[in-house]
UniProtKB/TrEMBL annotation:
Protein name: L-ascorbate metabolism protein UlaG (Beta-lactamase superfamily)
SUPFAM superfamilies according to UniProt: Metallo-hydrolase/oxidoreductase
NCBIfam families attached to this UniProt entry: PRK00685.1
Metallo-beta-lactamase domain span: 11-195
PANTHER family noted in UniProt: UPF0173 METAL-DEPENDENT HYDROLASE MJ1163, UPF0173 METAL-DEPENDENT HYDROLASE MJ1163-RELATED
CDD domains attached to this UniProt entry: metallo-hydrolase-like_MBL-fold
InterPro entries cross-referenced by the UniProt entry: Metallo-B-lactamas, RibonucZ/Hydroxyglut_hydro, UPF0173_UPF0282_UlaG_hydrolase
Gene3D superfamilies with a match to the protein in the record: Ribonuclease Z/Hydroxyacylglutathione hydrolase-like
């Protein structure tokens, strides 16, 4: 079977992967995203949902989407505990932690470090934020989650990543300049930007971002809302 991998951008840090027919949703924040008003939450039917951390702009729609789709939700232990409190059945929650790798029908997913903070929307303790590396078919894809620049990223250098999803908006995460450094740390040239333009503090100059990455000989993709690309 051909390895068919694509991703659709749903705004902020929310992406829907299609791994050979298995749909995997990352950090669902649509209903309260002012830029995502044209995305119908009711139409989203993932098989899996992965949460990088518990901040509302990454989990706001998880309970609704899980309920309508029956998706399995994967997150770090404490954030997974909050997911259960939202009414998600225990058998639909996968909790794991740093160093852990899930073996799933579409491939493997390893939890990796992110430098950020974490709490749940109700102010509870959400554990530690994280990122994920997806190993599916012949592709290796890094989803950084919300993170500042950190030397921990160098641990990914030898993976020979095909794609990396990096925050570039600054203020709450690393900015475009630190994201260029991060790209060098992880040794990946194909970058999809995220966590930008949603709110005033993370508004960026897209032309500047493209120029900064181009000067570093990196391929930056800034997807428009609802756009899909093949990975």
């Amino acid at each position: 079977m051909a390895n068919e991998i694509s991703v659709r951008y749903l705004g902020h840090a929310c992406f829907e992967f299609n791994f050979n027919g298995t749909k995997v949703l990352l950090d669902p924040f649509i209903t309260y995203n002012p830029l995502a008003k044209d995305i119908a939450v009711e139409s989203i039917q993932p098989d899996y949902i992965f949460l990088s951390h518990g901040h509302e702009d990454h989990v706001a729609d998880v309970a609704k989407i899980q309920s309508q789709s029956g998706a399995t939700v994967a997150a770090i232990v404490e954030t997974a505990g909050w997911v259960r409190q939202q009414g998600v059945p225990d058998d639909k929650v996968l909790e794991f932690n740093f160093g852990g790798t899930l073996s799933l029908p579409f491939g493997k997913v390893k939890m990796v470090y992110a430098l950020h903070t974490n709490s749940t929307p109700d102010g509870g303790y959400g554990g530690v934020p994280c990122g994920f590396v997806f190993f599916t078919g012949d592709k290796k894809i890094y989803f950084a989650g919300d993170t500042a620049l950190t030397y921990e990223m160098m641990l990914l250098e030898d993976l020979q990543l095909d794609w990396a999803f990096l925050p570039i908006g600054g203020h709450y995460t690393m900015d475009m300049y630190d994201a260029v450094k991060a790209s060098a740390f992880i040794n990946c040239k194909n970058i999809i930007g995220m966590h930008f333009d949603t709110f005033p503090p993370v508004t960026i100059d897209k032309d500047e971002a493209k120029s900064v990455f181009e000067k570093a000989q990196l391929d930056l993709h800034l997807l428009e809302l609802g756009d899909s690309i093949t990975l």
